[in-house]
Amino acid sequence: MDALSFAADFPEATREQWLERVAGVLKGAEFEAKLVARSRDGLEIQPLYPKAEGAGRIARAEAGRWRIAQRLDHPDPAAAQELALLDLEGGADALTLVTHQAPAARGFGVRIDSLEDLERALSGVRLELIHLRLDAGHGGPDLAERLVALAERRGHALSELSLDLGLDPIGALAASGRLPLAWDAVSARLGTRLAELAAKGFAGRALLADGRVYHEAGAGEAQELAAVLATGVAYLRALTAHGHALDAARQALAFLLVADADEFLTVAKFRALRRLWARVEQASGLAPQPLRLHAETAWRMTTRRDPWVNLLRTTVATFAAGIGGADALTVLPFTAALGLPDAFARRLARNTQLILLEEAHLWRVADPAAGAGGFEALTEALCEKAWSLFQEIEREGGIVESLRQGALQGRIAAVRAARERAVATRREPITGTSEFPHLHEADVAVLLPAARAAREAAEPAAVTVAPLPSLRTAEAFERLRDRSDAHLARTGARPRVFLANLGPAAAFTARATFAKNFFEAGGIEAVTNDGFSDQDKLRAAFIESKAKLSCICSSDDIYVIHAEETAKTLREAGSAPIYLAWRPGEREEELTRAGITTFIYAGCDTLKVLSEALDEACT
């Protein structure tokens, strides 16, 4: 029987019918509160969307593979070259040359001080067979000149090479807080440099509108899009003001967005940029053309603790960027937050892409999300929100002026603060760090340990702004774990909390599991047991545990009967403070008088509680 004909025999379900069923499950709870999420930009994310009707499609020119890009960021040019050749032999077809001057170098980056250094870094690399993108921050112009000189030395025609020079003075300003020249002078230099490149046959993209600095500072998806859009428009104005035709100016631009582990919003963000830029082109009197869109997985989402989970995050991000329409994608190796990744970590980064390309065949459709109700709705919502934020930047005089005023930084800071509150209360959990921590994780190898990013030598600056910070979401919890590690190194044991489990396993298991997860997120080892019904045995077990902290865990009914006497037993045995895994409601005052000092529950300020617990446990 034809499956479609069989389905046609049943009436089509309506949204009203679905809502009626949902109401029965919610049992009076509000639909909006329980099932409708919101992005950091305030966009509603519904649990169910209807099929999209007549959605406009702005995507890549055609279906095809995206470029698999790998970073060259070892400080030594010769070592960087060895890693690059391994990557190219292992399946990569693009390289991103990151120098020590780039904000994304994170304390590393290839040291390129001469043409010979660049030759060493790219020795054996067939430039005509790969795509190459430069990432050098304020050092971008010098590196671009050296790359052109290297191509000429090797006898390459610039028109035959696939190159992105990555010049992004606005991104460098946002990251470092300074420009060496006034913006008008910088604009003039961009115009002159592009003219010189064109005269030499350069056909690649010279300028980059880069979203990383905004994403790392905590921006929401719409804020990142707005900043990238405003940067692209600023470069169009700069080039056309200095003699370049509008069409030539847009051909000189490339874009970079960050891909993170929020699959739906990442797909929508990448699709939205293409539609937004087409809107700019149309407003400028140009017929839209497919833009060049780079992707890099998010530095913000990487963790130092249980770094293997980073492989899951980058896989989701790669999937999302791939089906969202990225032309080239750089996956940060899973050990990137711990130091300079070794060949193994780099191999896993490129193989993540190879599997999705060669085994999942994600490249075979130009825009797989087209027509899907959820993706189309989120894409359109992001377009409208980002366009509104872009207009706000324009009203402030453009992105350089917005940065100079501190306006853009202030709006991003507000979103960052909201995210930090969500992380602190674990409403935005971080697997392996704030949720399901692993206190006995094995070390992973890196070539060089993470170091504080080197500051560029102080130089006179014509434009100064408040620099945007580069932050990882997990840092606050990682600092707690660092305190635990220091205590372990000093005393031979981690700080401990004794779980005072009351009654049978069925009564305490859920809250004991919650408490163990809660405390170990701060590096406080949970000492657990099979439960107690005898207070003398509980007292003896606490003393034997050598813990300074205790946490009572059981059911509501047992708390009503035994929480107060258990608190008294633990206090007399020397526990200070005493925690209770429960939201006490009306009984808080009564239980506090009985000796309970802190209540832990889903949504409490986990960071604050754990910091205070470490203060007690590590003294």
Ordered list of secondary-structure elements with their pairings:
Layout: H1 3-8, H2 15-26, H3 31-35, E1 37-38, E2 44-45, E3 67-72, H4 77-89, E4 94-98, H5 115-121, E5 131-135, H6 140-153, E6 162-167, H7 169-176, E7 178-179, H8 183-199, E8 205-210, H9 212-216, H10 221-241, H11 246-251, E9 253-259, H12 263-283, E10 293-297, H13 309-324, E11 328-330, E12 339-340, H14 343-359, H15 373-395, H16 399-405, H17 407-424, E13 448-449, E14 463-464, H18 475-491, E15 496-501, H19 505-520, E16 525-527, H20 535-545, E17 549-553, H21 556-572, E18 578-581, H22 588-594, E19 598-600, H23 606-617
Parallel strand pairs: 3-4, 3-11, 4-5, 5-6, 6-8, 8-9, 9-10, 10-11, 15-16, 15-17, 17-18, 18-19
Antiparallel strand pairs: 1-2, 7-14, 12-13
Helix pairs in contact: 4-5, 8-10, 10-12, 10-15, 12-13, 12-15, 13-14, 18-23, 20-21
Number of helical segments with 4 or more residues = 23
Give the CATH H-level superfamily of the largest domain: Methylmalonyl-CoA mutase
* Count of beta strands: 19
Largest sheet: 8 strands, parallel, barrel
Overall pLDDT score: 93
Shape, per Cα inertia axes:
globular
Provide the helix percentage: 40-55%
- Parts with pLDDT < 50 across at least 5 consecutive residues: none
Structural class: alpha/beta
